[in-house]
Amino acid sequence: MHGVHEVASSNLVTPTNSFMQFLSLLFFFVIIIPSSILHEYAHGWMADQLGDPTARYAGRLTLNPLKHIDKWGTILMPILLFLITGGHFLFAYAKPVPYNSYNLKNQRTGPLWVALAGPFANLILATAFGLFIRLMPMTNLSIFLSVIVYANVLLAVFNLVPIPPLDGSKVLYAVLPASQYRVIQFLEQNGFVILLIFVFFGFKLLVPLISFLTGLFTGGIGF
Questions:
Q1: Counting C-beta atoms within 10 Å of the first and last residue's C-beta, which end of the chain has fewer, N or C?
Q2: What is the pLDDT at residue 170?
């Protein structure tokens, strides 16, 4: 998600072993933070490649977590939600990378590529770990590595939902004709409320897709 908080929520499949469940949930929590940072970095990197050096000038075009961590959104809030819900619902975000679309060389397609860069980075990471899982013997390590795949697939899919402030809204804006400006105006004015409603009542619609892609990348190995 570019220019806004990074969000992740999860309804995790319960493994047969409760200890493994706890370790998987804890590992998911640890992984979602660097995955979110990579997501934000990708937005800044793509913007820089397309003509906007804002993130680079701000010192944010780096994978150094200290430059991206938000004390509340990246650490305290996820821990609180983890304890309250037992890991059934996780929500975290990294500080948004600054970005000025007016600096992009192509004002029409530039914002589209910047928006897609974050989810695409997560899918690349999911693909890499998925291939590694397929090549290694089936062990408990495979289960934990599948959590990395799941977390990154979740970030990619969730952020492509076309609701502000998620990346999917920027993709939608890029393909909508100018005559549909009222749709954009409505979403911008009500996006946060719509997103909250979706998180609590519509996220379950994404679970089959997230599970399918995770299985596709890992060869059916999951947690």
A1: C
A2: 92
pLDDT tens across 161-185, in order?
999 989 999 999 988 888 888 999 9
Query: What's the confidence (pLDDT) of residue 210?
Result: 92
Whether the per-residue pLDDT at 47 is higher than 50: the answer is yes
Phi-psi region for residue 87, left (φ > 0), alpha (ψ -120 to 50) or beta?
left
Q: Are 172 and 162 in contact (CB under 8 A)?
A: yes
Confidence of residue 69 (pLDDT cuts 50, 70, 90): confident
Q: What is the 3-state secondary structure (H, E, C) of the chain?
A: CCCCCCCCCCCCCCCCCHHHHHHHHHHHHHHHHHHHHHHHHHHHHHHHHCCCCHHHHCCCCCCCHHHCCCHHHHHHHHHHHHHHHCCCCCCCCCCCCCCCHHHCCCCCCHHHHHHHHHHHHHHHHHHHHHHHHHHCCCCHHHHHHHHHHHHHHHHHHHHCCCCCCCHHHHHHHHHCCHHHHHHHHHHHHHHHHHHHHHHHHHHHHCHHHHHHHHHHHHCCCCC
Q: pLDDT value at position 123? A: 97
Q: Using the structure block, give the residue that is written with the tokens 């640890």.
A: 30
State how far the Cα of 151 lies from the Cα of 166, in Å rounded to an integer: 16
Question: How long is the chain?
Answer: 223
88 or 159: which carries more pLDDT confidence? 159
- Residue type present at position 108: R
Q: Active-site positions?
A: 40
Q: Which residues contact 124 (CB under 8 A, 6 or more apart)?
A: none
